[in-house]
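Example 3.2
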Amino acid sequence: MSVVEIALKRPYTVVAMLILISLTGIGAAERYNRGLTDFLNVVDAERQFYDLQLQYSIAQVAQGEQFVQLYKSLGGGWQDYQAIPAIRRPQPAVVAAFRRVLSRSTPP
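Structure, written as tokens:
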């Protein structure tokens, strides 16, 4: 398995683990509410859940950075396909109207 395949699969693996840990946290909270376990199990399940959320966000950042690195290594970059037009200096409305009238009325 290549490094790219591992990097692409990692966020999905972490998501699956997040789902399982969240269910574990719900179960721990229910057991605590029924008086079957102590609060330490609930806190531990929440800690694991937040730890996996952090790993998921780190995996997403790493995947994005690797995509950018791949794009750059293949010669990609910002291409200036859309040239920005020059900004015209605004004119007072009277001057602009006068110039428009003069440009339309050319003698034959």
